[in-house]
Amino acid sequence: MTEPPPGLQQSAADRAGATPQLDAEVRTVALGGFGAIGAKLAGCLDDGITGLRLAAVSARDRDRAAKIVANFAHPVPVVALEGLAETAEIVVECAPAAVFRQVAEPALRAGCTLVAVSVGALLDNDDLVGVARACGGRVIVPSGALLGLDAVAAANEGIIRSVRMITRKPPAGLAGAPYLIQHGIDLDGVRAPLKVFEGTAREAVKGFPANVNVAVALSLAGIGPDRTRIEIWADPGVTRNTHTIDVDADSSRFSMTIENVPSEDNPRTGKITVLSVLALLRKLTSPLQIGG
Fold first, then answer.
1. Which structural domain, as residue segments, surrounds residue 110?
2. pLDDT at 215
């Protein structure tokens, strides 16, 4: 078994609070990231969610984050990414994919539950599942901007023949994607739907790391990142980030479409993404659970 590094050997139960006998029903949450998703989650947790308590946040701009949380009803410290695991039982990773491991590895070595929003980064850090297994941690992937992952996972208990997802976004929602830059694709002035990518989920998340984390979540629920096929369209005719999934399995054949309102703070992310994390966090402490 891999031993946790010094300073991270305290159990998740011990980190629940200074008076665990009083907080036995409350689970502590730390947020790795304070952007459009993290800041919204922090505010909701501070407002109060039964069974959960915000313990700490981390942020690229620590001074800005400190000023915001200082005005919370229950102010919390702003700590380094690597220090989140020392403050809470549940660590929500909602930072840029480039720092995914800085949040994830200490949390899993400390036996925490990791809620991974940048699920695409799991493909390049799949050894962390082994770390979680060895250290008593757990990785949970929220549904994010997608729907029907329960149905895909159920179908995968049988035989899935194919999974395909078509994503359509306003051109501004794809701006800056590495794949577009690498291939010299300019979306300025696009007047008609333009297919900018077709390939596997693994290839899609490398080329569009801020746009199609949902493709990886879909692939992990089903037949994997190398068999799940993805199309990405820049479509000036849509105002919502739209994902259509087609699944062909021995148990069923189904299609699903979701149209997500883009976040005001980050058009690459749908408003429903943060709500899916909130729903997942509530489920962790609820006596009633609907779906997987």
1. 14-144+273-285
2. 92
In this structure, are 207 and 281 located in the same domain?
no
Residue numbers in the chain where pLDDT is lower than 50:
1-23
CATH number of the domain to which 38 belongs: 3.40.50.720
pLDDT of residue 58: 97
- What secondary structure, in 3-state letters, does the chain show? CCCCCCCCCCCCCHHHCCCCCCCCCCEEEEEECCCHHHHHHHHHHHHCECCEEEEEEECCCHHHHHHHHCCCCCCCCECCHHHHHHCCCEEEECCCHHHHHHHHHHHHHCCCEEEECCHHHHHHCCHHHHHHHHHCCEEECCCCCCCCHHHHHHHCCCCEEEEEEEEEECHHHCCCCHHHHHCCCCCCCCCCCEEEEEEEHHHHHHHCCCCCHHHHHHHHHCCCCCCCEEEEEECCCCCCEEEEEEEEECCCEEEEEEEECECCCCCCCEHHHHHHHHHHHHHHHCCCCCCC
Residues annotated as part of the active site: 243
The predicted-structure confidence for 224-276, as pLDDT tens digits, reads as follows 999 999 999 999 999 999 999 999 999 999 999 999 887 777 777 778 989 99
